[in-house]
Design a protein that fits this description.
The chain is of the alpha/beta class. It is built from 12 helices and 20 strands. β9, α4 and β10 form a beta-alpha-beta unit.
């Protein structure tokens, strides 16, 4: 199917059961469950981009998953090789393209690409083309408007830096690294998140001397050990983390204890990180990043001129022979918690710590359960993407509360859902740990309740 066929001319009016605003990873995960479990439903997806896949269409070309493909994509279809495979960005974009083609072929799904939504006074929604605002479709929604954009992922290529940059300074997003065709005196990586790590590793993997890399790190973060987050191992990993909360109680003891067990890493062993955002790394990547010795910890960048970088807590030199790489876009910005289910509306949010696509699939399943929205929301406790180390205990325990509730309402579906990290455990391991989880959770919740500082992101 060509792109022209992919997004056929929109009608002036259409009726649909579900209008999903956003055809990124969460929107597609939600649509997949509805498509497969409510065969009579008509689904309409709307996205400003030309293709499904959300931010993966805009990400740097060397991007890939940082957690296994086994846990990503849509529940009905394996991504790439599955298992521990870290599918590349192009593979992921192609995967979502194929899944959309499959749904479109049924005649029950429509994709309005290059479009945006505007709600009308009579409760209908008008979908307007971003290419020609005179072209619009009035949509009558029978069941739910689904906002799959609320947790909008930001990438550097689509978001300008929040600091001033002189015109003569060479500044690129990570996307630009793949196009660099001449050597620079120095490469300045700006940002401390997974994107910045990927940019630094990209340079190191291509033989750039670590001494030529300067890394501006506003905040150090605890990093998740990738070998511990693998199919068949994740239940044990989560249980290990819950046990650490119970035993050590405070995050400044919890994280070092998990580090001793090999579950968690930090790049600088002499610093106690302040962040926890679930960035997942291989130990070999950590060792490579440690070879970069020119690490600047003076807060966030405020301005870059031809010969100086101004930061919150000081300034450092730079020059026009340095290539600056902006990695500061907040991939998962902090958003206020909203009810997942409201009258005629669903707002997709994370219900499991750092597992957005699984959360979206579960929300779709809950939408099909015979209960009212008030009850649905009681088993959809929102778990915002954690930012600080203090957020981890409540994020994890709330995730477990949700899992236990879902196991009571739809245990077979939960076990079979490919996106569920614990789906990949043996049935014996899955069952034994399900029995252990409740008493462990009760003790962990007592610890969290006793510490007001270890709360959810606000």
């Amino acid at each position: 199917m060509s792109d022209a066929e992919f997004a056929s001319a929109p009608p002036a009016h259409l009726k649909t059961n579900y209008l999903i605003i956003g055809a990124g990873a969460m929107g597609m995960a939600f649509a997949d469950v509805i498509f497969n479990e409510q065969p009579s439903a008509h689904i309409t997806l709307v996205d400003k981009r030309a293709r499904p896949g959300g931010h993966w269409n805009d990400a740097y070309p060397f991007v890939g998953l940082h957690q296994p493909a086994a846990f990503y994509g849509v529940s009905s279809t394996k991504l790439g090789k599955g298992g521990s495979d870290l599918a590349s960005g192009p593979e992921i974009v192609a995967y979502y393209h194929r899944r959309m083609q499959h749904m479109l072929a049924s005649g029950r799904v429509r994709f309005l690409s290059h479009s945006k939504c505007e709600e009308t006074k009579d409760g209908h929604v008008k979908v307007v083309s971003v290419l020609d605002e005179t072209v619009s479709t009035e949509v009558e929604v029978g069941q739910r408007i689904v906002d799959a954009t609320y947790m909008a992922v930001k990438v550097p290529s689509t978001h300008a830096p929040r600091y001033k940059v002189a015109d003569e300074v060479a500044l690129i997003p990570p996307n630009g690294l793949a196009k660099v065709n001449n050597a620079w005196l120095r490469y300045v990586i700006i940002g401390a998140g997974k994107t910045a790590m990927d940019a630094a590793l990209y340079l190191l993997d291509r033989g750039v001397n670590a001494d030529k890399i300067r890394w501006i790190v506003p905040n150090d973060a605890w990093l998740w050990d990738r070998p511990s987050v693998q199919p068949g191992k994740t239940t044990a990993e989560f249980m290990r983390q819950v046990s650490a909360i119970i035993e050590h109680k405070h995050v400044d003891k919890i994280f070092p204890a998990l580090e001793q067990l090999g579950s968690i890493h930090r790049i600088d062993r002499d610093r106690l990180p302040t962040k926890w955002r679930c960035a997942t790394v291989d130990p070999a990547e950590v060792e490579a990043l440690r070879t970069i010795k020119d690490v600047v910890r003076l807060g966030r960048v405020e301005a870059i001129s031809a010969n100086e970088i101004q930061l919150q807590d000081g300034s450092i030199d730079t020059n026009l022979q340095s290539l600056h790489v902006d990695c500061t876009a907040n991939g998962l910005a902090k958003m206020a918690i909203r009810p997942v289910f409201e009258s005629g509306r669903v707002t997709l949010q994370s219900l499991i710590m750092c597992q957005q696509v699984f959360s979206a699939a579960v929300i779709a399943r809950i939408a099909l359960v015979n209960m009212d929205d008030e009850r649905r929301n009681t088993i959809c406790r929102v778990v915002p993407h954690p930012e600080l180390k203090e957020h981890m205990p409540m994020s994890l325990t709330t995730s477990f509360e949700n899992l236990l509730d879902w196991n009571r309402h739809f245990p077979i579906w939960l076990r079979r859902c490919r996106l569920n990290l614990m789906h990949h455990d043996s049935l014996w391991t899955y069952s034994v740990n399900a029995l252990k989880a409740k008493p462990l959770l009760s003790k962990a919740l007592e610890v969290v309740a006793a510490s007001k500082s270890q709360s959810m992101p606000e």
